[in-house]
Amino acid sequence: MDYGKFKYEQQKRESEARKKQKTIDIKEVKFRPNTDKHDYDVKMRNVFRFLENGDKVKISLRFRGREMAHLDLGRQLLERVADDVEEAGIGKIENMPKMEGRQMIMMIGPTAK
Predict the structure, then answer these.
(1) CA–CA distance from 68 to each of 64, 75, 90, 97 (Å)?
(2) How far apart are the C-alpha atoms of 79 and 93, rounded to whole Å?
(3) Residue 92: strand pairing partners
(4) CA distance linking residue 75 with residue 93, whole number of Å
(5) Paired strand residues for 59
(6) pTM summary value
(7) Cross-sheet strand order for the sheet of 26-31
């Protein structure tokens, strides 16, 4: 068998496999501890859209200045996000909220279809 022909066919098979695979992107939505109701609704609409498209969503909550004294408000906001996502049934929490410096971060993945 011709080695060049073999390599060509192998390359074609690999490119076909790459075309069929779905890459999962990580989209980020940023919140603040004092995010108001309407802003929250707009950001949650984006979260739902990202999850429906099959992407993971990274929710980051940034604290500035004196907001660091009120970490409980941030945790409540992220728990509210988690409840809304699970209630809608389009996502599941992969990483619960945890602090990384001045940010609290949570990962949400799409549910299997």
Answers:
(1) 7, 12, 31, 15
(2) 10
(3) 109
(4) 14
(5) 29, 106
(6) 0.76
(7) 26-31, 56-62, 103-110, 91-100
Residues across the chain = 113
- Rounded to an integer, what is the distance from CA 82 to the centroid of its chain? 12
The pLDDT tens digits of the residues spanning 52-95 come to 988 999 999 999 989 889 899 999 999 999 999 999 888 899 98
* Distance separating alpha carbons of residues 14 and 104, to the nearest angstrom: 40
**Helix H or strand E segment including 108:** strand 103-110
Q: What is the pLDDT of residues 28-50, one digit of tens each?
A: 999 999 889 999 999 999 999 99
Burial label for 27, CB within 10 Å (0-12, 13-18, 19+), is middle
Residue with tokens 């408000």: 73
